[in-house]
What we know:
Layout: H1 2-29, E1 32-37, E2 40-41, E3 45-48, E4 53-55, H2 57-68, E5 73-78, H3 84-89, E6 95-96, H4 104-107, E7 110-112, E8 117-126, E9 139-143, H5 147-154, E10 159-163, H6 166-174, E11 180-184, H7 185-196, E12 200-202, E13 209-213, E14 216-218, H8 222-238, H9 240-249
Parallel strand pairs: 1-5, 1-6, 9-10, 9-11
Antiparallel strand pairs: 2-3, 3-4, 6-14, 7-14, 8-11, 8-12, 8-13
Helix pairs in contact: 2-8, 2-9, 6-7
Amino acid sequence: MKKLLLLVFCVLLAVAMAGCGNSSKEKAAGKILKVATDANFPPYEYYQEKTKVHTGFDIGLMNALAKSMGYDKVEYINVDFKDILTGLNEKKYDAAIAGMTITPEREKLATFTEPYVADSYRIIVAKNKNGKFLVSGKTVAVEEGSYSMELARQNGAAKLLPVKGVEETLKAVSEGLADCAVASSVSAGFFIAHGYGDKVKFADEKELLTDNIGIAVAKDNKALAEDMNKALAELRRSGEYKNIYSSYFGAN
């Protein structure tokens, strides 16, 4: 009988120790938020080769949101912009942040948070172009998958030249491959200030469109969007949002 009790005790102890081991492993793993981004869109997001980290306004904001929501870590996954919403609904990641304009078409594919920042789209032309410049009838460089493609079509572009990112649109204009480009004012302004100022400029026209930018989650994951909205509101109240914004866009 004593041997039987001893055997039962040993079995129970082994099970308990195994349970403790699993618990420790889970705790060490932490709570991870998987986020897709296209790290080719400064100052919103870009990848620093030297430090091997993602940085930019979107990254700083997402890190703060995740912390406020109780996550221990954000795992960033680089995805081509045109494929981001597809992967989101295939559950490859939890959310997507990539300077993404909230449009009716995209709202059919994903659930968006409330806008966290505003931007606009403008026409970029070669430095030697003067006067007003219209998209109509022109070859227009645009970032593939971005809303600039739709805007260029709506404004009568004769031909679209889809490229990988905003810098590539400016490069296409500077090399004469396109008559102009349509791109985010913020991102294009960043590149004009960092290497393209003697090659391209904004056309005299005002913004083609002022847009609202949001974080996307899977269409059926409204709960996560609501949690992010609450966290965003808290960051605004505490002043942390303003600090993050100022770090990348300057004081407003």
